[in-house]
Amino acid sequence: MLFVVPKAYGDEDQSHIKLTDAGDVVLTERKTANKELWENFRYMEVGSNLIPYMDPEEFKKIFEGKILKNTEFSEQIFAKNFKFSGKYGKDLYQEVARYALIASYIAANNDFDVIHAHDWLTYSAGIAAKAVSGKPLVVHMHATEFDRSGENVNQKVYDIEKTGMEAADKVIAVSNLTRNIVINKYGIHPDKVVTVHNSVEPISLPDINISKGVKEKIVTFLGRITFQKGPDYFIEAAKLVIDKDPNVRFVMAGSGDMLNKMIKRVAQLGIADKFHFAGFLKGKEVFQMFSMSDVYVMPSVSEPFGISPLEAMMSDVPVIISKQSGVAEVLKHALKVDFWDIEDMADAIYGMLHYEGLSKMFKKYGKVEVENLRWENSAYKVKEVYKSLIE
After folding, report:
1. What pLDDT is stored for residue 31 in this prediction?
2. How far apart (Å, rounded) are the C-alpha atoms in residues 36 and 68?
3. I want to staple 302 with a disulfide (CB 3.0 to 4.6 A). Which of 65, 74, 147, 359 is the partner?
4. 248 and 144, same structural domain?
5. In a 10 Å sphere around its CB, with 0-12 CB exposed, 13-18 middle and 19+ buried, how is residue 135 labelled?
């Protein structure tokens, strides 16, 4: 298996795969397939700060869509490698376009059976590899632009997602929720879209000896503080719970574009003395937070799947999740609420905190349930998709 990534760090396990850092690939060849590829991608918008990589005449020929099938390029365009940050930023669309160039080159110089592209950032690369090799393309939809932005979608991202799924031979969605969005919002034929639910990696919990330092019970939100994750609904529910029982503290761990707005809202509601913003947590810090938590809440507005509830359940924390999440399709031992129903969410939190039998049941059976959600099962289903395309 050849696995191409924008940026490798050198310590990855390569016992079962060949890992290729796209930034290490030097483009030195000029092939007909590559020239045709530019025609396929001339619709893509690329910022003017790409100019340092080519002279202005070549830039104009390529990106204004005026290329003819037999146009010749100067050898210098491809006689270099491009470094990828692998991060969101002002150069993101440039990196997506350059990644497609790299993919076409790799596809022309390697033998393989299936192309698998993950999320919109790699869809253009997947299309490029398919155009060069003629091999079937699978695209994996982990989150749609509707999940990230609601109805105020970024049109360029939406167009890339739609083009990628239209070009694909199969689309894998991480939940039925995502599958329905792909079909209804992007117009992809249902026969082409299959659901393969995510799983969670079995872990050995770190030895944690930490005192929460307060006598009150703790309710935790952990995730990006953005529209998609529903942090505002968590805060409104917190107010209702605190009004009924002041001996509860709420923690919002994470960062995002709604953070300042959430801090102001907590102050407006007068619950700042019972509400803590923990910042972005990673690694062992996540499990330290779970070790102090009595309830974990994921109130996502639109969650393609949602791994964090599974991590909480592994840590013996009962969870409350929104019905608008993919993980709600596979979990039985979690309380499920509509993200917008703050009264129902508050009742669920209060019940989990005050009825010991309820929380014990969800802890016990939830942990067993999540331990049976194996990546091996997900991998088997993905392999069956591959087999359907090459047999």
Report:
1. 44
2. 9
3. 147
4. no
5. middle
Residue 24 maps to which CATH number? 3.40.50
- Assigned domain for 381 exists: no
**Same domain? 98 vs 240:** no
**209 is a domain residue:** no
Provide mean pLDDT across the span 351-377.
91
* 189 and 109 co-located in one domain: yes
Domain count, the chain: 2
Tell whether 336 and 230 lie within a shared domain.
Answer: yes
Asked if 52 and 181 sit in the same domain, the reply is yes
Residue 236: CB atoms within 10 A of its CB come to 18
Phi, psi torsion values for 254, nearest 5 degrees: 145, 180
CA distance 78 to 82: 10
pLDDT score for 213:
77
By residue range, what is the domain housing residue 242?
A: 217-371
Alpha-carbon distances, residue 208 vs 59, 140, 290, 308 (angstroms): 56, 36, 10, 19
Say if CB 81 and CB 26 are below 8 A apart.
yes
How much is the pLDDT for 346? 98
Average pLDDT over residues 159-176: 97
d(CA 310, CA 245): 27
Q: Work out the average pLDDT over 313-318.
A: 92
DSSP 248-315: EEEEEE---TTHHHHHHHHHHHT-GGGEEEEE---THHHHHHHHH-SEEEE--SSBSS-SHHHHHHHT
Distance CA 311, CA 330 (A): 14
3-state secondary structure of 214: coil
d(CA 298, CA 336): 10
- Whether 269 has a pLDDT exceeding 60, the answer reads yes
pLDDT in tens, 181-193: 999 999 999 999 9
* Confidence category of residue 90, pLDDT binned at 50, 70, 90: low
> 278 lies in a domain?
yes
